[in-house]
Design brief:
The complex is a heterodimer of chains A (305) and B (451).
Chain A lengths: L1 H26 L15 E10 L3 E12 L2 E4 L4 E7 L4 E7 L5 E5 L13 E8 L8 E8 L2 E7 L4 E10 L5 E3 L5 E6 L4 E3 L12 E6 L11 E10 L3 E9 L25 H37 L1
Parallel strand pairs in A: 1-16
Antiparallel strand pairs in A: 1-2, 2-3, 2-6, 4-5, 4-7, 7-8, 9-10, 10-11, 10-14, 12-13, 12-15, 15-16
Chain B lengths: L2 H11 L6 H27 L14 H13 L1 H11 L6 H26 L6 H6 L5 H21 L3 H10 L5 H10 L7 H34 L11 H27 L8 H32 L2 H12 L3 H19 L7 H28 L19 H24 L5 H27 L3
Helix pairs in contact in B: 2-16, 3-5, 3-11, 3-15, 4-5, 4-10, 4-11, 5-7, 5-11, 5-16, 7-10, 8-9, 10-11, 11-12, 11-15, 12-14, 13-14, 14-15
The chains are: A alpha+beta (305), B mainly alpha (451).
Chain lengths: 305, 451
């Protein structure tokens, strides 16, 4: 009886061991079908609101991921944008570019201080990505209005009034907001003035614009007035073309006959010199070829002559 | 012309089919060329990224090889023109091989430039969109002109020999006989023909001298017209031209030695030829040494800014070993050895010429690459490999392939045409004999006059 029990117990033990083995195989992560799927990386999502008073508002999501010790932009991922409220409303989606930024243009009527909705909550989400884990970012924005006027004949001034609607919809001043003026240059923006300009108690600001910045041939330059990275209002931008620059005449040098001129404006002395040398030498070469033809003809003439 | 002597000269100098050694030589050269061609096809498919050239070193061994080929090609003007016009009749046997080397070198100078372009189909942009102010356009013009003149200077003195081969070459293959018939232009040696041919050769010999000076001066201006340290030098024109004459002379000596031994031409490439060429090489080397001194000593005296940095790299930096090897082994040692008569015997002078040629190739590398390793506008955080240029196997294969190609062209020219001018050498010999006889007679007449 003891032997029988031993045999049965051994058999059961084997069965248990086999059963546990398969259970373990199924339980271990990375086994079976999930084994081939790589681990998804974490990302950081940033969200900014821009209100370009000329072209309209837009949202910009920046996505980056950590590789080694540094962050690199995430390229080619779809970012979904939402407007939060009683119900989440989808605003659209955009792909991240090579800098990891995805931009979505918003309807101009969405951000309108004249309506009754003054606070907006936006959300940008990266989801269902094969490479990255889901991540989102929320941004709360309060509407604001920036009125800019440009004045002056010899002394130029930019006057800014920043207001925001209160709970009743009345526009009230927005003090202590940093406003910066720039001039658009070829590759970047040139800040105007070295001081930090903040709106006063009445939401106003006066900026002196220098009168010695080069413009185009007519003295026209592109000025930008920006409220940047405000905690409540986000970014507000106004761009305007002004005749406040110094006229710059086009450099005529490349059209003149200089060594560095274009082909059609080669210096005359060089054209004459090089061509004279070439004509002289190649003239001699052609003469030599004629001599060779003559030598050949002499043979034929003397043959029959 | 003494017919029996002519027959003897013909027997010695007429082209012969390749022997076993010749076939092996051609086979090896062809193989090297094919490897080079394979590497070039890879470069065409993938692009210049197969080379080690990057944003800093944008000119590498292709360009240094180009400058080397242009330098060697100046031998044509030296032997065929300068020595011929100065009536150095001893140089007559050397003129043919000098022009063969010149033509072959200048052809491959053009080819290697197109290889360096990366996009060969853009070559015609030079023609359609080239600016007359550009040193590159001048270089293209002068190289094409020099090639044509070199071909004419190779061909025209060859005409009487071609006629001789046409008349006596019954045992040549039919295609070769046809070639001689066509190229000889029906030459009969008539006085009128002789007169026209001599005039044509004289015109080309005079014309090639300024063009030869021009070709290497303009090539030097590709570098000297920039503001880069090491290149921004007023000395570059004469420095390059003098260096070219040195390597050209060394190339002729090397060819003389090989042909003399392989084709049993001791009667034509005599010990006297080696002796005179050795002295000429010493003279040219001393002139080149003078320009080297000007090129390096005065900037080293001042060690001004980036020029100083460049010189530090050459004198005791990354390129020091190569620089001093080139200067000592490629220039000083051969010059010293050739000062002695024993050093001007065939074997020693041949070995010294090999050193001069190798030194000249690496000298051109030292002219091109170190300057580029120190960029005019440095870039932040570039890969380390950009700072230390070492050619890839593809670059080596193509460069060595081009050298093999040039040797192959010379080999085939030697195979087809007499490497020593038959008629011209015989005429020079007969003139010498006549002059010697006239002098002897004059001396005899003097001694007969009673005192």
């Amino acid at each position: 009886m003891k032997d029988t029990f031993k045999k049965e117990f051994s058999a059961n033990l084997v069965f248990v061991r086999v059963f546990l083995f398969f259970l373990l195989m199924a339980a271990i992560p990375g086994q079976g079908q999930d084994a081939n799927e790589p681990k998804k990386a974490k990302v950081r999502v940033g969200l900014e609101f821009f209100n370009n008073l000329t072209s309209g508002p837009y949202l910009k999501a920046s996505v980056k991921t950590k590789t080694g010790r540094s962050y690199v932009p995430v390229v080619g991922e779809t970012i979904h944008f939402y407007l939060m409220g009683d119900e989440e409303q989808s605003l659209g989606q955009a792909l991240t570019d090579k800098k990891g930024a995805a931009v979505l243009l918003l309807d101009k009527t969405l951000v309108n201080p004249g309506d009754t909705v003054y606070n907006h909550s936006f959300r940008a989400a990266l989801k269902d990505s094969k490479r990255f884990r889901d991540k989102d970012k929320q941004l709360d924005i309060r509407e604001a209005n920036m009125e800019v006027s440009f004045s002056g004949d010899s002394i130029y001034q930019i006057l800014v009034l920043l207001t925001t609607p209160d709970s009743a919809g009345t526009m009230i001043p927005a003090p202590n907001a940093k406003i910066t003026a720039y001039v658009k240059r070829l590759y970047s923006l040139l800040p105007v003035g070295e001081d930090i300009f903040l709106t006063d108690e009445s939401g106003q600001l006066s900026l002196d614009f220098p009168n010695d910045i080069p413009g185009d041939e007519k003295g026209i330059l592109s000025a930008l007035v920006k409220l940047e990275d405000h905690d409540s209002f986000g970014n507000i931008i106004l761009e305007k073309e002004l005749k406040w620059g110094l006229p710059v005449t086009e450099n005529e040098v490349i059209t003149e006959g200089e060594l560095w001129s274009a082909r059609s404006n080669s210096p005359m002395y060089m054209v004459i010199l090089v061509n004279s040398i070439l004509i002289g030498i190649w003239g001699a070469i052609i003469y030599i070829i004629f001599i060779l033809i003559k030598i050949s003809r002499i043979s034929r003439t003397k043959k029959f002559g | 012309m003494n017919k029996s002597e002519l027959n003897q000269y013909y027997k010695d100098l007429a082209p012969r089919p390749f022997g076993k050694a010749g076939k092996i030589w051609v086979g090896v050269l062809l193989f090297i060329c094919l490897v080079g061609l394979f590497a070039y096809i890879k470069q065409l498919r993938i692009g210049l990224s197969v080379t080690a050239m990057r944003d800093y070193v944008t000119w590498g061994i292709y360009i240094s090889n180009f400058v080397f080929f242009v330098a060697i090609s100046l031998v044509g003007s030296l032997i065929s023109a300068i020595l011929k016009l100065s009536k150095a009749s001893w140089s007559t046997p050397l003129t043919r091989i000098a022009e063969m080397i010149a033509v072959s070198a200048i052809v491959f100078a053009g080819i290697i430039i197109i290889v360096d372009m990366g996009r060969p189909e853009r070559f015609m942009n030079i023609v359609f969109h080239g600016r007359i102010q550009s040193p590159i356009v001048w270089d293209v013009l002068v190289i094409s002109t020099y090639l044509v003149i070199s071909i004419l200077l190779l061909y025209m003195p060859l005409i009487p020999d071609l006629a001789l081969l046409r008349d006596k070459g019954g045992n040549f293959p039919a295609w070769q006989q046809k070639l001689y018939r066509k190229l000889s232009l029906g030459w009969k040696g008539l006085p009128e023909q002789e007169r026209w041919l001599k005039r044509a050769i004289r015109i080309m010999a005079i014309l090639i001298i300024p063009v030869a000076f021009g070709i290497h001066t303009v090539t030097s201006w590709l570098f000297a017209s920039t503001l880069r340290p090491g290149w921004d030098s007023t000395d570059f024109g004469p420095y390059f031209v003098s260096g070219a004459f040195v390597v050209g002379a060394a190339a002729v000596i090397t060819a003389m030695y090989i042909l003399r031994n392989h084709y049993a031409l001791k009667k034509y490439f005599t010990l006297n030829h080696f002796d005179i060429m050795g002295k000429l090489l010493v003279l040219l080397s001393l002139v080149y040494l003078y320009f080297n001194l000007n090129e390096y000593f005065m900037p080293a005296y001042k060690m001004k800014g980036s020029e100083g940095e460049h010189l530090r790299e050459l004198f005791y930096g990354e390129y020091a070993l190569l620089f001093w090897s080139v200067q000592i082994l490629g220039m000083l040692l051969p010059t010293i050895v050739l000062l002695f008569k024993k050093g001007r015997r065939p074997k020693p002078i041949f070995l010294m010429s090999i050193l001069v040629i190798a030194g000249a190739w690496f000298k051109r590398f030292l002219i091109v690459v170190p300057t580029l390793s120190h960029p005019y506008i440095p870039t932040h955080r570039v890969p380390v490999s950009w700072l230390h240029y070492f050619p890839t196997w593809e670059e080596w294969a193509i460069t060595i392939g081009s050298l093999a190609g040039a040797l192959l062209v010379v080999t085939f020219l030697v195979r087809l045409f007499p490497v020593v001018p038959i008629v011209e050498t015989l005429e020079a010999h007969e003139d010498k004999v006549r002059d010697a006889q006239a002098t002897l007679k004059a001396n005899e007449n003097k001694s007969e006059i009673p005192s």
